């Protein structure tokens, strides 16, 4: 069954012909929209030096979104912790949690969120910080704890907010860490599906209960593009496929409008690479997507599902999110009536 919470991952994607300001404003409008539809979380991800993504200053954007909404949880999916001082992140998210209590999540990753040249520009000792990733997560937990009040270094605001921490990953390495720390686990199956199945198995088998979490909690991320017909959804999905083709080629340009035939755009090798990346992308009418999502949730044992919808036209994007919420609510109602 698919009666589980559902959430959104947003990157403030810049579409061809629109400005960065418009992309950020659209993200805020989207958060307001999905809050009304019953989504649980609205997360944004840290990326740098990409023309098509405007979510580099993640904590600032989360404040912009939280201010416009009332109940939905707002968080990072994620902050790339090796790019930052744990104390500064504790202060930033502690400030958010102070202004918007019981609504802030902190998802953490260890990847740079950019190319290596830019990663070095962000932090020259980044590789050393990657090795300290587990240690720095524990530092963050301490900064958020009331018990840290006796220490010389304190996060103010932040201390006592107990901001929930999530581990993000796309490999088995992250699974081992999330299990050892007893933290909820988010897998990036929307663009890196290869190691998802073994990673989830490792996480569940090795999980150690913690103060934050008693039992394993998995939230995989998938791509969803819904439209009235399978054909219309496939057409809309060509913008996402072109954007992902840019990941393969290194050309990170604003997301282009859809095209009638992807074979006029990509080579056979690019097609194979993109289709591998987008293995867990569910594209079609509600009937088509419902069956596929149901199978995915049963396969993964997900406790919550996070979705990303890369659609060029913002109104089609908003419509897709509404159709997905309606689909999930239909399933809840069906279960309730049995």
TrEMBL record:
Signal peptide: none annotated. It comes from Rhodohalobacter sulfatireducens. It comes from the Bacteria. To bacterial alkanal monooxygenase alpha and beta chains. Residues 22-242 form the Luciferase-like domain. This is LLM class flavin-dependent oxidoreductase. InterPro entries: Bact_Lucif_Oxidored (IPR050766), CmoO-like (IPR019949), Luciferase-like_dom (IPR011251), Luciferase-like_sf (IPR036661).
């Amino acid at each position: 069954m698919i009666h589980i919470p559902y959430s959104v991952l947003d990157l403030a994607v810049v579409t061809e012909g629109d400005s960065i300001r418009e992309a950020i404003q659209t993200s805020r409008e989207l958060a307001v929209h999905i809050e009304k539809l019953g989504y649980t979380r609205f997360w944004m991800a840290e990326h740098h030096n990409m023309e098509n993504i405007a979510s580099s200053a993640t904590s600032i954007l989360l404040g912009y979104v939280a201010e416009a909404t009332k109940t939905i949880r707002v968080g990072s999916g994620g902050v790339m912790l090796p790019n930052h001082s744990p104390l500064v992140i504790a202060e930033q998210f502690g400030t958010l949690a102070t202004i918007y209590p019981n609504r802030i999540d902190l998802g953490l990753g260890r990847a740079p969120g950019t190319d290596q040249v830019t990663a070095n520009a962000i932090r020259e000792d980044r590789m050393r910080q990657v090795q300290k990733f587990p240690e720095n997560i524990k530092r963050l937990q301490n900064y958020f704890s009331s018990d840290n009040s006796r220490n010389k270094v304190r996060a103010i605001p932040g201390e006592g907010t107990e901001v929930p921490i999530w581990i993000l990953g796309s490999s088995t390495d992250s699974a081992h860490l999330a299990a050892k720390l007893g933290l909820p686990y988010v897998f990036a199956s929307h663009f890196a599906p290869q190691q998802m199945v073994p990673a989830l198995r490792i996480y569940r088998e090795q999980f150690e209960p913690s103060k934050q979490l008693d039992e394993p909690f998995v939230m995989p991320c998938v791509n969803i593009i819904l439209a009235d017909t399978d054909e219309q959804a496939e057409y809309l999905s060509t913008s996402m496929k072109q954007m992902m083709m840019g990941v393969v080629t290194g050309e990170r340009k604003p997301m282009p409008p859809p095209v009638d035939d992807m074979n006029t755009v990509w080579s056979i090798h690019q097609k194979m690479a993109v289709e591998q990346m987008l293995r867990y992308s569910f594209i079609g009418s509600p009937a088509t997507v419902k069956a596929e999502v149901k199978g995915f949730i049963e396969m993964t044992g997900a406790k919550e599902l996070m979705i990303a919808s890369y659609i060029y036209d913002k109104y089609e994007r908003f419509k897709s999110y509404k159709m997905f919420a309606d689909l999930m609510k239909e399933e809840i109602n069906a279960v309730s009536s049995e």
